[in-house]
Amino acid sequence: xxxxxxTMTRPELEAEIVSLxxxxxxxxxxxxxxxxxxxxxSTEQLDLSNEMLTVLHGDDCKxxxxxxxxxxxxxxxxxxxxxxxxxxxxxxxxxxxMGGSASLEVMYNALMRAMIFGVDKESEPxxxxxxxxxxxxxxxxxxxxxMCQDLCIEMINIKMTxxxxxxDEVERLVASDSSVKGMWCVPKYSNPDGVTYSEKTVxxxxxxxxxxxxFRVFWDNAYIVHDLTDTPDELINIFDLTRGTKNEDMVYMFxxxxxxxxxxAGISAFISSEKNVAxxxxxxxxxxxxxxxxxxxxxxxxxxxADGVREHMxxxxxxxxxxxxxxxxxxxxxxxxxxxxxWRRPNGGYFVxxxxxxxxxxxxxxxxxxxxxxxxxxxxxxxxxxDPDDSNIRIAPSYPTTEELKAxxxxxxxxxxxxxxxxxxSK
Length: 427
Ligand code: PLP
Description:
The chain has about 425 residues and is of the alpha/beta class. The chain has 13 helices and 13 strands. It folds into 2 domains: about 5-45 and about 310-425, Aspartate Aminotransferase, domain 1; about 70-305, Aspartate Aminotransferase, domain 2, CATH 3.40.640.10.
């Protein structure tokens, strides 16, 4: 039976530190170089989609309507690609605009259009309305926060719960402050917590009363089909709830095949009401003549339909699941019962969200670095890179090999224990 660190006497903590230091120094001597920082698919996962590179040939580059994808045109995307994304997201093809090779650019463009032109013809550009704010469920995705920072949009932290963002706080802020123009959401297997918004949460978001008429929800469905287990989370379709209501135009959804096919070389889409789609196209029309339709056709030919994607994702899961298990097993066996941390057990997505004893995450990051293990920058999961509790660490198990991951986790758990013992002793 392990003893909780919080119940240890000072001499017991001192002895623990001595033995942990020895274990840590032994790891340092190994000169490891391991990376658990970014949620990148491994080479083995990328190989799953290799056939896509040969699925298309010069003499067979026509869409179902006979359009040659090698040429300019079809701004909103080829019909079969819009239908493919629509099926995957349970919307109509008319609600889909195909974007470029990754979704972050689609999000950034949506933000820029709102800043410069306003969300529709009746609204003032956000950039002309003085200080504007975004609600940021945190921990969240660092690149969402980076976009806001880049565009001088003030960010407000919203606590994450087991059911998604703290909706009492969201409702209060959105209803009372007309400078709150947007909210980031990663509704399925959120980055990094792996939380899927409950039906109640999605309903409350769909029903939001917003003081700003031009308030928009940025619904980044990056992990829409990224299940790890046979008992996947279910996310209800927000558009089924907003269609025909006062909030019909409130939601901008984004998806991509980044972690389905090739990150940075997949297909992406903007999904919204028909009014928002028309508004977006009226600007995109000047931005480009058309996106990469060769890639769109390649994806449709390779996957066929949404079921094809779901089958493919099972192959990803069979590579990813053992890696998540290595992480969770290491945490359970080495940290369980010590009262030094908590961690989530996601059913999908790309991360294990780890909550160290408050005030120790930065120290853990430093210790890991000293022993050759790179973690996502501690704090990066919060707006402005500041975790108010200095606690959350995003563990990304996908990229390292299983052997590397085991080695990295051995270092990680020592660092967590050491940082916690030091912290308790400093009190
Ligand atoms: N959105 C979220 C929540 C992510 O976690 C990621 C990648 O980690 C992305 C978007 C990136 O998507 P893309 O490669 O399509 O730009």
